[in-house]
Structure formats: structure tokens, C-alpha cells
């Protein structure tokens, strides 16, 4: 992961979240929300999707409105140096409390690393069009090129 390498190399402490795959009997069965910030109200590592077949995934949006909102709210009130949002996409398409929390993070003073789905998703378009962000399309450049550009921008 590009973000993990940048954060490690710069020795940043980070809040925020990552979405990670979960497996049952060595088969990926969906993804879960892992908060990098200590959460109290909700359990950490809650599922955000289930994958009933090889080519389908069903989102569990409520995880974003509960654990996701708590994670991001605590992150903007933490001692962290940056906030990670990995990733923003389609499963939270109609989860408006989560959208608001994402906006609060982006409007904060924190350095934010976000992985944003490339596909056209209405709630993500205003984020992609913000003037205060830099977008790196990893389909058009290598991870090493993106790494070098990001490090140069931060320094």
C-alpha cells in the first residue's frame, strides 16, 4: 500500500480508517472497516460488505454511519499528524452522516490521505473537484512515481 509506505517513511501517527478484505476458508467474502483511531461506542473491524458470489458484493452501509462516523469524528479531535481514508467508494453511497464526517475531515487542518474510487459515484465527484486536493491516478503512473511526487509535495 502506497499510503502505508508514505506514513511509515515519514514516521507519521495517523487517525482514520482502512477497508480490508476478510476471508473464510481462504476465500474472500467481503470487506471490513478498520479504524486506526481508538473507538469506544462501536466495535472496531465491522463488515462493510459481503460477497455472496465471485462477482457480486453487497454493501452494509450502516457500518459507515456508526463506526465510520465515530472513527472520523475522533480522528479530527486526536493528536494524529494525518488522517487516512482508505477507501471512499460505492458502499457508502447513501450514508449521509458518513458523507458529512468525510467533509469535516477534508475541511480540517489535517494532512489527509484518501483512496477514492475512480468510477463516477455522485457523492465523490465534489471531493474529486475540490481545489485543495491533489489527485494521483495510479492507472496513469506507477506507485513509485506517485510516492516520489507525494513526498516532494509534503516536504
What percent strand?
25-35%
Output mean pLDDT: 95
Distance between the ends: 20 Å
Quaternary:
single chain
Strand order, biggest sheet?
A: 4-3-2-1-5-6
Which class do the helix and strand fractions yield? alpha/beta
Strand tally: 6
Number of helices: 5
Main beta sheet: 6 strands, mixed
Strand and helix order: HEEEEHEHEHH
| Overall 3D shape | globular
**Rounded to an integer, what's the Rg over CA atoms?**
15 Å
Could you name the ranges where pLDDT drops below 50 across 5 or more consecutive residues? none
Helix content: 25-40%
Can you characterise this structure?
The chain is about 30% helix and about 30% strand. The protein is an alpha/beta fold and about 160 residues long. The longest helix is centred in the middle third of the chain and has 14 residues, at about 60-75. The chain has a 6-stranded mixed beta sheet. The protein is built from 5 helices and 6 strands.
Keywords:
alpha/beta, 5 helices, 155 residues, 29% strand, six-stranded mixed beta sheet, globular, 6 strands
Amino acid at each position: 500500500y502506497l499510503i502505508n509506505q508514505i506514513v511509515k517513511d515519514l514516521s507519521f501517527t495517523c487517525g482514520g480508517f482502512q477497508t480490508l478484505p476478510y476471508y473464510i476458508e481462504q476465500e474472500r467474502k467481503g470487506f471490513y472497516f478498520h479504524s486506526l483511531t481508538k473507538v469506544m461506542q462501536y466495535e472496531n473491524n465491522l463488515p462493510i460488505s459481503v460477497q455472496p458470489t465471485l462477482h457480486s458484493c453487497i454493501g452494509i452501509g450502516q457500518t459507515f454511519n456508526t463506526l465510520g462516523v465515530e472513527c472520523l469524528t475522533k480522528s479530527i479531535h486526536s493528536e494524529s499528524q494525518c488522517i487516512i481514508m482508505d477507501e471512499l467508494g460505492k458502499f457508502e453511497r447513501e450514508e449521509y452522516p458518513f458523507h458529512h464526517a468525510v467533509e469535516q475531515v477534508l475541511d480540517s487542518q489535517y494532512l489527509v490521505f484518501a483512496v477514492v474510487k475512480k468510477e463516477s459515484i455522485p457523492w465523490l465527484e465534489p471531493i474529486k473537484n475540490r481545489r485543495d486536493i491533489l489527485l494521483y491516478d495510479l492507472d496513469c503512473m506507477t506507485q513509485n512515481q506517485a510516492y516520489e511526487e507525494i513526498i516532494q509535495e509534503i516536504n
